[in-house]
Each structure stands twice: as C-alpha cells, then as structure tokens.
C-alpha cells in the first residue's frame, strides 16, 4: 500500500471512530507536510494523523478519539 492509500485508510478509520463517539469532524487541514488535523464542528476537539519523514506508517491521536463529544456537556452547562 503506498503512502497516499495508507493516509486515506487512516483518515477513513479515524472519521468512523470519531463518529462513533458523536463527533462531527470537519475538513482535514494540512498543518505541515507530515501532519493533518480535523476539528469537531460542535465542540472543537481535534483528531490528527502524522508521519515523520523516516516513518512508513501514519500515527493517530487527539481528544476526539479518547472520549465522547462534549456536545451534551456543553448543552447541559448552557442550560444551567
């Protein structure tokens, strides 16, 4: 699998994971040559994929993969 295919697969998997946690990811932005990031349209949580120049695989991270979207928490706080 070439680098572009691998990147596309990683982004698709991260988007599916984020949707499962109720995030609504926006456009993937190129932060640098080896870093792409997307923010949740609702709460602003970030997810990213990165690869150093020497690595063959993309790595993932970000709050949008670690907890549910804060939308419910933000709505509850605004109602108080």
Describe what this molecule looks like in 3D.
The protein is α+β, with helices and mostly antiparallel strands. The protein has one domain. The protein is 34% helix and 21% strand. It has helices at residues 3-20, 71-79; strands spanning 29-32, 35-39, 46-50, 59-61. The chain has a four-stranded antiparallel β-sheet, with helices on one face. A hairpin with a 6-residue loop joins β2 (35-39) and β3. The model is unreliable at 76-80 (pLDDT under 50).
Task: List its traits.
80 residues, alpha+beta, 4-stranded antiparallel β-sheet, 2 helices, 4 strands, elongated, disordered C terminus
Write a brief caption for the model.
The protein is an alpha+beta fold and 80 residues long.
Instruction: Compute the number of strand runs.
Output: 4
In terms of structural class, how would the helical and strand content be classed? alpha+beta
Please, how many helices?
2
Domains (count): 1
Overall pLDDT:
81
* N to C succession of SSEs: HEEEEH
Write the layout of secondary structure elements.
Blueprint: H1 3-20, E1 29-32, E2 35-39, E3 46-50, E4 59-61, H2 71-79
Antiparallel strand pairs: 1-2, 2-3, 3-4
